[in-house]
Every structure is written in structure tokens, then in C-alpha cells.
Amino acid sequence: MIYEMRQYRCVPGRLPALLKRFETATLKIWEKHGIKQAGFFTTLIGESNQELTYFLAWDSLAEREKKWGAFTTDPDWHEARAKSEADGQIVANIVSQILAPTAFSAVK
């Protein structure tokens, strides 16, 4: 199992719009493609309170490539993204890291 950590820094004031998009649209599209989330977090204390961090669980890099590729080209995703950004851009920056658990990690 590998994990992907994704951090989205929002345009100031747009975090609520991003959270709404995940809750009402993105997660349903992920479910359709078999994408497994391992947790979502907002920043309580840190550099920016306009960030969303989440983790995805993948069996392999090949699985990630196949499922993430299908998601990013899904017309439902493009429609949901366009609709959620009707009032302007939401995300200013995205950082993604692929992580492998250590032998002593509680998460495997």
C-alpha cells in the first residue's frame, strides 16, 4: 500500500467552496472510479488556514495512474469543477507527494 498526500492551498476565502465541492461532487466521482480516501484535514495551526490536506490509499503506482487518469478525464468531474468555480478560481496551488509506510508504521 502507498499513500498520496495532497495539499491544496486555496485562494483567500475560497476554502468553503473547495470543501463543498469535495463533499457534494468529488467524492461521488472518486467512488465511481474506485479511488479510496484515507482522510481529510483542514489546518488548525500552521502556515495557512486556507489549506486542505488529504490522503489517498493506493495498492500501487499503476493503480494510481489508471484510476487518477480516469478521474481527471471524467466529464462529470469537469462539469463539477466548472460549476464550483463559477464565482472564481478556488485553488491557488497543489502539492502532491507519494508516500510509502515504514516497516514500523501503524499505517501499512
From TrEMBL:
Domain NIPSNAP, residue spans: 3-105
Domain of life: Bacteria
SUPFAM superfamilies: Dimeric alpha+beta barrel (SSF54909)
Stretches of the chain forming a coiled coil according to its record: none
Pfam families reported for this sequence: NIPSNAP
Protein name in UniProt: NIPSNAP family protein
InterPro entries on file: Dimeric_a/b-barrel, NIPSNAP
